[in-house]
Model the fold of this input.
Amino acid sequence: MTTILKAENIIKYFHKPIKFKALNDISFEIKEGEFVTIMGKSGCGKSTLLYILSTMDTDYEGKIYFGQQLITGLKQNALAKERNRNIGFIFQFHYLLPEFTALKNIMIPAIKLGRYSREEIEHRAYEKLKLLGVDDQALKPASKLSGGQQQRIAIARALINDPKIIMCDEPTGNLDSKNTAIVLETFQQISKEFNQTIIAVTHDGDFAKASDRTMEMADGIIINHNLML
Done:
């Protein structure tokens, strides 16, 4: 399997209120098509690591590679293009534009990327809505959707550009068991059928158990690269 993401000797400091080492010399590789979860107690550094991997945090020591490309050190404009092209990010909170329809929310990243025509983008958005089982909600304003529907729309938005890597910060943290099962099934499907890589921070042991591999963190280090749950 091809390595799609590699972290080398990642160190992260926070400087307020006092200097604190949040990540301590972390190195690992993730293969293309892997569904990887990251677990650990609150404050262990897992979300901090995810934001560095996603290139949203560039204040760290060490190196991040996407495939063979060194991402560390690129300018912000180049990183923004890289994110829009290759990374889909799913937050615990959906961050949808409430006055926009579900369909328009999903289309935004593809419009920014500019790779497809407006008609193609709308078609692709409907495909993602069907994948998540919310195509009947396409023309509703985001503010009129339930919490579970809103999170599935946010996931569809993250998938619209067919990113190579999908990164998630507690993607099911605010969902009930039914919606959690739908999200998990979708992640398994896109990993296996479309060979997209998923990296998800989670506290949910059942969610982690369904992934290909779980990395366990504690006190800013990875203490287990393949946790057996």
